[in-house]
Amino acid sequence: MRVELTPAEVDRFWSKIARSSIDQCWAWKAETNNMGYGRFVIYRPERCRLLAHRVAFELASAPIADGLKLLHSCDNPPCCNPAHLRPGTQRENLADAFAKGRRSMPPHPRGEDHPRALLTQGDVDEICRAYGSGDVTQAHLGDRFGVNQVTISRIVRGLWGGTSPDERARMLTPDRRTA
Fold it and tell me: Which CATH architecture is the domain 7-99 placed in?
C-alpha cells in the first residue's frame, strides 16, 4: 500500500466491501479496473488509486513485500477477503492460473525448448566447462557455438533457460564463478 490511511479513509474503505463469512468472497462494491479488481481512491493532494484487495490484505494482515503479488484462492478479482489472499510471485500467480485453467497458453518456453534456441543443454554444459577451465574467452566460445558473447555471458551467469545456478557452480572453477 505504501500510503498510510487515515482512520476516516479506513472507515470509507471498509464501507465499500460487502463483508460476510470468512469462507465467502467479500465483494468490492465501488470502482474497478479493466481486469475487475477494485480500486480505492484517496487524495494526497493528488488522486491516488490503490488496488482494493491489496489494501484489505494489508489492513487485516501485514504489509506485502516489495515485488510480490496477491494471489486469490477464490479466483474472483473483486474479492477483498484477506482469508482468500496470499502473497506470491508473478511466476506463482501464472502457475496458479495455468493449473486452474484460467490461462490457456503454456508458460514461455526456455532454454532448448524455445523454438528459436540455437543451443542444446549439452552445448550449455560444454560452454560452462570450457569457460570454467579458464582457457577460452566468452567471445571465442560465442564464435565456436554460433552465438554472441552476451549469450555466453548469460549462460555462465546461469541466466540461460536450462542451467540452474547450482549446476553452473559445479561446472565453473571457483576463480571463474560469477554472481
Answer: Alpha-Beta Complex (3.90)
State if pTM tops 0.85.
no
Which region, left, alpha or beta, applies to residue 158 given φ > 0 means left and ψ of -120 to 50 means alpha?
Answer: left
The residue extents of the domains of the chain are: 7-99, 111-176
* CA contacts within 13 A on the Cβ side of 22: 2
Q: 99: which 3 cell numbers? A: 493449473
Tens-digit pLDDT string for the chain (179 aa): 567 899 999 999 999 999 999 999 999 999 999 889 999 999 988 889 999 999 999 999 889 998 899 999 999 999 999 999 999 998 898 888 888 877 666 666 777 777 788 898 889 989 989 998 889 999 999 999 999 999 999 888 888 775 555 555 555 544 444 44
